[in-house]
Every structure is written in structure tokens, then in C-alpha cells.
Amino acid sequence: MALLPILTVPDARLKKKCAPIANVDGRVVKLMDDMLETMYKAPGIGLAAPQIGLLERIIVVDVSEHKEGAKEPIAMANPELLWLSDETCVHNEGCLSIPEIYADVVRPKQIRVRYVDRDGSVQERDCDDLLARCIQHEVDHLNGVLFIDHLSSLKRNMIMRKVTKAGR
């Protein structure tokens, strides 16, 4: 496995919509494994392909406690949100592509997602709480949406000024 470089704002690739994966083959499985290794090392709980510069619909997530042997990685190709609950919740989010920045984001509390797993099988999964939030955050990346895009323009502009200033 290999550690991959994580893109940060304002890299334009983070704002692009990703293309679907034709099939999950050896290249995609290796990419999923490399993405998981990169995510764990960062450390993070989710990573999307555009964050490593690939405009493909692949995400990996793991919201387990990360105790030795307790990892529960989920790798998804072509994830599609089929249902979002009307019930929402607000939580503080961050992103590996916007280091050291956190903000409260409102998202649906529960989701149903369809995806292709690392074996090439189509799966559907109902998720709630942190897993639902993490999958929504990563699917947003596949559509060129960052978590700060869910904030008011005033808050988003303040964050981008802070990021730009820190980058100097």
C-alpha cells in the first residue's frame, strides 16, 4: 500500500464533479486500500478520490474507534444517496482538505446509500449518526461540494480568508 498526497483548498480539482467507475477491478481495489491507509495516517474518518487528485466516484470511511483490531473500513465505488431523513442534526465537521478548520453543519441524521463494494457487488446500507454524516460529507466531495459550502457565504468567506492567510 502507498500513502497518497491529500489536496487542500483552493485546489480546483476539489470543486469538480467525479465520473462513475465502470467496474471495480484490481486497480480500484488497490486505490481503495491506498486511500484507507492515507486516511488512517492523516488521521481522518473519510476520504474521497478527488481529495487525492482523482476525479472518480470512490470513497472510503471508517468511523470505528480505531482501537487495535477494531477498524471497520468501508470502501464504496459509485455511492448514491437513495434516501435522506427529514430529521436533521448539527455537528462540528472538519476536512482533511481544509486542515484545522471546523464548523457546525446541518445534515440529515439518517441515510440509505447504494454502492459497489470492493468485491464488485452492489450493496445498500442504512446509516445514521456519524456514519451517515461521514458518507454524506464524502459523497459531497464527489460532486465538487466542500463542507464549507453548507455554511453561509459570510462564514465560508471568513474561513477561506483564514485558509489563504495561513497558506502564505
In words, what does this structure look like?
There is one protein chain. With 168 residues, the protein is an alpha+beta fold. The protein has a single domain, classed as Peptide deformylase (Peptide Deformylase, Alpha-Beta Complex). It is 27% helix and 30% strand. Strands 1-2-3-6-7 form a 5-stranded antiparallel beta sheet. A two-stranded antiparallel sheet has the order 4-5. The N and C termini lie far apart (33 Å). The mean pLDDT is 94.
Summed up:
Fe cation binds at residues 95, 137, 141. This protein is of the alpha+beta class.
Radius of gyration: 15 Å
- CATH topology assignment: Peptide Deformylase
Average predicted local confidence, pLDDT: 94
CATH class: Alpha Beta
According to DSSP, the number of beta strands is 7
* Sheet with the most strands, sense and barrel status: 5 strands, antiparallel
Share in helix = 25-40%
The CATH superfamily turns out to be Peptide deformylase
Distinctive features:
3 helices, metal-binding, alpha+beta, two-stranded antiparallel sheet, Peptide Deformylase, globular, 5-stranded antiparallel beta sheet, metal ion binding, 168 residues
